[in-house]
Amino acid sequence: MTNDAILAKYGELGRDIREILITEDQIRQKVLELGERISQDYADKNPVLVGVLKGVLFLMADLLRVITIPSEVDFLAVASYSAEARQRGMVRLIKDLEIPIDGRHVLFVEDVIDTGLTLGYLLRSLRDRNPASLEVCVLFNKPAHRLIDIPLKYKGFDLPDRFVVGYGLDYNEKYRNLPFIGVLKPDVLKGKT
Ligand SMILES: O=P(O)(O)OC[C@H]1O[C@H](OP(=O)(O)OP(=O)(O)O)[C@H](O)[C@@H]1O
Ligand SMILES: Nc1nc2[nH]cnc2c(=O)[nH]1
Q1: 43-47, 82-86, 137-141: which has the minimum mean pLDDT?
Q2: Ligand at shortest distance from the CA of 80
Q3: Ligand 2 contacts CB of residue 169 (under 6 A)
Q4: How far apart are CA 186 and CA 74, in angstroms?
Q5: What is the Rg, in whole angstroms, of the alpha carbon atoms belonging to the chain?
Q6: What ipTM is given for this predicted complex?
Q7: Is 176 in the pocket of ligand 2 (CB under 6 A)?
Q8: From atom 11 of ligand 1, which residue's Cα is the shortest distance away?
Q9: pLDDT tens digit string along 174-188?
């Protein structure tokens, strides 16, 4: 299917998209590769995959389906603060893990890393609980605005400095269900770059 045909299939959502940056097939292939590596690296370790709601839902579900070893999953949720508040390290946990992670091999799964502030805070919080190991798997890495250096053991795509939607990523809670990564048209995207 051409990109135009894919966008047409999504009707009003598709009409808001200026460009598809990463296709559904490219995402599927990359998630498969990540799942294969994780399955090899964590064989016999029964890892706990941890994600932050809500953007990670799609990645987490797809990744779990291609991981071939026993593994567990749990989620955190954080309150959204302004960029200024987050820069001061303010991330408020509104849902904590249900699985105790002391002594466990934890893989933090993130859909997108931009400034790194959210992940930086959450990794510190998880490290305090003494996991046996703590690594990060990110599908979409946006290095342009990174404020904190975070080692990424598993990385999918480097993205340009543009606000993107789809595959879990939203704009005002919309567009999460698009199966690709796209850039919104300028008239839709007010105040974002
Ligand atoms: O590296 P940072 O600049 O901290 O940005 C990354 C965060 O942004 C996204 O969440 P978002 O705030 O969009 O919430 P959502 O997942 O509920 O859409 C993503 O899931 C990360 O948690
Ligand atoms: N939807 C969305 N959320 C983000 N959080 C950090 N970067 C992005 C982005 O490009 N799109």
Answers
A1: 82-86
A2: 1
A3: yes
A4: 36
A5: 17
A6: 0.93
A7: no
A8: 55
A9: 999 999 999 999 999
